[in-house]
């Protein structure tokens, strides 16, 4: 199997399409971020890479709080809009008709329509070049009641989206189940010892 | 829309299922990681959260290099296996029949069967509690030739997988295209000004 190199491109699959929230000058603001991932479990930690010039970053620095809102198929247009526009120029909350609520941190705006919301406290802001890397501790996690099955979050009701950069930039839904995690790998263990 | 809180759980969608590679005592080793995300563009930066006790982390510290290998539907069993087993006890490369190659960094093992591979240099290792947060600079990105269309990486040929924790732990494929990014949001701009 031959390989080609594409320089040092940031190409991975999947990438998320999260809506990152922060209060900027006491007003809720959101931006779309594909550059984010969980970092630790105890305490629960998440990272977000944000370009230094972004308006939302100003708000994170003001309050050292932010939110990560998981987007869904139903919110794809709004998610894309918050990636195109800046809260410094338009009222994204009004255009997207976001219902904003606040939790225990008071200054991390959360979007009611998003199926999952993480309320976070910024622990560190690292300069990694073109971007600031926000390392945040998750303080509270919210799930929409209509996305639960038997009290547990249900991905089939949440209907999250994936941000895909190649080929062309697009959003994709989740597809078929490939296998049970922490289970299907055991077939290789059996083959090895069998 | 009512919300419930599920404590401060690390629940986001999508999460990846990457195979993280490192040479441990000069031998290639791989572990599965769902806690990873891009962090910056110039230079290209990626983060990975790894439990302090993991064998692969020992190798990253030895060489300050590692790899991020994007998994696929065809490699779901192998990916799961490297999440269950540890290279300190079994020879994962032999069991999974991984063909390992090295690039410009010499000490970051890459898996030929994975459709996309990032060769990385560790810039920082942060202690974020239960996990070490590796901040790495991407030095080279490789794509399997048979996953290209007109010279560009093609997600429909790459067939990546998503790690889903709720409900139940499972791997899912990518699903239907929801819309064009940097495009569908413009409908809201038109509505606003129209």
Quickly describe the structure:
Chain A has 194 residues and is α+β, with helices and mostly antiparallel strands.
Rounded mean pLDDT score of chain A: 96
**Secondary-structure element string of chain A:** EEEEEEHEHHEEEEEEHEEH
- The helix count of chain A comes to 5
Extended strand count of chain A? 15
> In which range does the helix fraction of chain A lie?
10-25%
What fraction strand of chain A? 35-45%
The oligomeric state of the chains shown is homodimer
Structure description:
The structure is a homodimer of 194-residue chains. By secondary structure, chain A is an alpha+beta fold. Chain A contains 5 helices and 15 strands. Chain A has helices at residues 55-63, 76-84, 92-96, 155-158, 186-193; strands at 3-5, 15-16, 18-24, 27-33, 36-40, 45-51, 65-70, 100-101, 110-111, 116-127, 131-144, 148-149, 152-153, 161-164, 170-180. In chain A, the strands form 4 sheets. Chain A has a 7-stranded antiparallel sheet with strand order 4-3-7-10-11-6-5. In chain A, a hairpin with an 8-residue loop joins strand 8 and strand 9. The longest helix of chain A is centred in the N-terminal third of the chain and has 9 residues, at 55-63. Chain A is globular. Chains A and B meet through strand 1, strand 2, strand 5, strand 6 and helix 2 of A and strand 1, strand 2, strand 5, strand 6 and helix 2 of B. Strand 11 (131-144) of chain A pairs antiparallel with strand 1 (3-5) of chain B.
């Amino acid at each position: 199997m031959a390989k080609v190199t594409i320089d040092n491109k940031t190409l991975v699959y999947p990438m998320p399409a999260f809506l990152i929230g922060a209060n900027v000058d006491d007003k809720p603001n959101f931006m779309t971020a594909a550059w984010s991932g969980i970092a630790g479990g105890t305490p629960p930690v998440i990272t977000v890479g944000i370009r230094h010039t972004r308006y939302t970053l100003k708000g994170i620095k003001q309050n050292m709080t932010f939110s990560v809102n998981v987007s869904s198929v139903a919110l794809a247009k709004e998610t894309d809009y918050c990636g195109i526009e800046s809260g410094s120029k338009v009222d994204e909350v009004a255009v997207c008709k976001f219902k904003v609520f606040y939790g225990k941190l008071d200054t991390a705006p959360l979007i009611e329509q998003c199926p999952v919301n993480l309320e976070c406290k910024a622990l560190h802001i690292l300069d990694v070049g073109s971007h600031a890397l926000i390392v945040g501790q998750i303080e509270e996690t919210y799930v929409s009641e209509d996305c639960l099955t038997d009290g547990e979050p249900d991905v089939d009701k949440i209907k999250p989206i994936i941000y895909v950069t190649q080929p062309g930039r697009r959003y994709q839904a989740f597809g078929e189940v490939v296998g049970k995690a922490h289970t299907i790998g055991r077939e290789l263990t059996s083959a090895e010892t069998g």
